[in-house]
């Protein structure tokens, strides 16, 4: 019998057949692989020279073992990567939960600012230009050169509220301060949720407890998954170009349609975003309904809001806001994560 071995921690694997060594295989001995070729007894009379493995056979066996070693090693790396990913997801999820709670409490204390918060998020996002791939929800509206523009008149109080909330959010963060671009869009989410909840409470005759139960049972909370994953926007350090945002309270429906069309939205998205366009949603919708393209969608969402669940309205609004809040953005899915401190077992006192 002619044989040679390579040591490994892999399990038994059968090797490809070889014309000179029909029973070639990898056997396991004491947890190690042995690259082993056996000859039939009928070949026992072969000359010593014929029984010796040539260089090509050795290389073939060695290459196979090394490949198996690499395959086994990659498994541990995969498990490590999966574990790291799960840790980062948990870190981002916990931080996001803190953000939502703080923003919800801040808005609850100043409900009159909801229209301004929604407009702030809208105007920050609608600076996106498809041709140049610039602008979008990048937090530039926080800059004095941009917030002072005519289309942003009246939004300073909303921005001040978010700046204050940011201080509290950052105090809890282990992975760095929240970006203004994330802050503004998540504030819009919190404000939209407040309008949904308020509608449910209204349908329950003003009973807050019953309204919350109604919203929990029939509301759209489960539709926010994609929005929540878009978490990790980067702030711009420069104001976006002027002239990209209409003055909504002075703009015609045609101007609004053109603006929405420029970012890939149509009459449907314009109608469902009516709550973002002014403090009096009904007045905005009445104006939008003067346009034959927008009217069917306005009527659809008004009918939806009269139902118990207002599903069509809520789902379409969430979908549109999700698209709006990611225009031109490269999301950093590792944002707000941080290294986990390793426990040194040798220093533990038992």
Could you please describe the fold and organization of this structure?
Belongs to the peroxidase family. A hairpin with a 2-residue loop joins strand 1 (25-29) and strand 2 (32-36). The chain contains 13 helices and two strands, in the order ββααααααααααααα. By secondary structure, the chain is mainly alpha-helical. The protein has a two-stranded antiparallel ribbon with strand order 1-2. Helices cover 51% and strands 3% of the residues. The protein has a domain at 82-324: Peroxidase, domain 1 (Orthogonal Bundle), CATH 1.10.520. Helix 2 (55-108) packs across helix 6 (180-203) and helix 3 packs across helix 6 (180-203). It has helices at 48-51, 55-108, 114-125, 144-147, 156-172, 180-203, 208-218, 225-229, 253-262, 267-272, 281-288, 295-305, 311-324, and strands at 25-29, 32-36. The longest helix has 54 residues, at 55-108.
């Amino acid at each position: 019998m002619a044989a040679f071995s390579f040591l490994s921690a892999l399990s038994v694997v059968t090797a490809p057949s070889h014309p000179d060594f029909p029973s070639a295989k990898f056997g396991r001995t004491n947890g190690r692989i042995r690259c082993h070729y056996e000859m039939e007894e009928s070949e026992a009379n072969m000359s010593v020279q014929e029984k010796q493995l040539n260089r090509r056979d050795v290389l073939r066996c060695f290459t196979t073992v090394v490949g198996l070693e690499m395959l086994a090693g990659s498994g541990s790396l995969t498990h490590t990567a999966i574990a790291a990913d799960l840790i980062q997801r948990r870190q981002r999820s916990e931080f996001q939960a803190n953000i939502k709670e703080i923003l919800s409490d801040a808005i609850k204390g100043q409900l009159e600012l909801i229209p301004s918060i929604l407009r702030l998020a809208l105007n920050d996002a609608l600076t996106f230009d498809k041709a140049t791939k610039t602008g979008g929800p990048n937090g530039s509206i926080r800059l004095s050169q941009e917030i002072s523009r005519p289309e942003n008149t009246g939004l300073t109080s909303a921005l001040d509220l978010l700046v204050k909330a940011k201080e509290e959010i950052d105090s809890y963060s282990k992975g760095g301060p929240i970006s203004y671009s994330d802050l503004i869009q998540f504030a819009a989410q919190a404000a939209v949720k407040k309008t949904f909840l308020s509608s449910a409470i209204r349908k329950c005759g003003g009973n807050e407890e019953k309204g919350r139960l109604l919203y929990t049972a029939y509301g759209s909370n489960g539709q926010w998954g994609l929005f929540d994953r878009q978490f990790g926007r980067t702030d711009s350090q420069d104001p976006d170009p002027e002239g990209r945002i209409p003055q909504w309270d002075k703009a015609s429906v045609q101007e609004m349609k053109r603006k929405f069309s420029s970012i890939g939205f149509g009459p449907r998205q314009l109608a469902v975003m009516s709550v973002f366009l002014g403090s009096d949603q009904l007045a905005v919708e009445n104006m939008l309904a003067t346009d034959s393209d927008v009217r069917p969608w306005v009527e659809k969402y008004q009918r939806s809001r009269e139902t118990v669940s207002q599903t069509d309205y809520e789902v379409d609004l969430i979908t549109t806001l999700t698209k709006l809040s990611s225009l031109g953005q490269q999301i950093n899915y590792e944002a707000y994560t941080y290294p986990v401190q390793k426990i040194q077992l040798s220093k533990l006192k038992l």
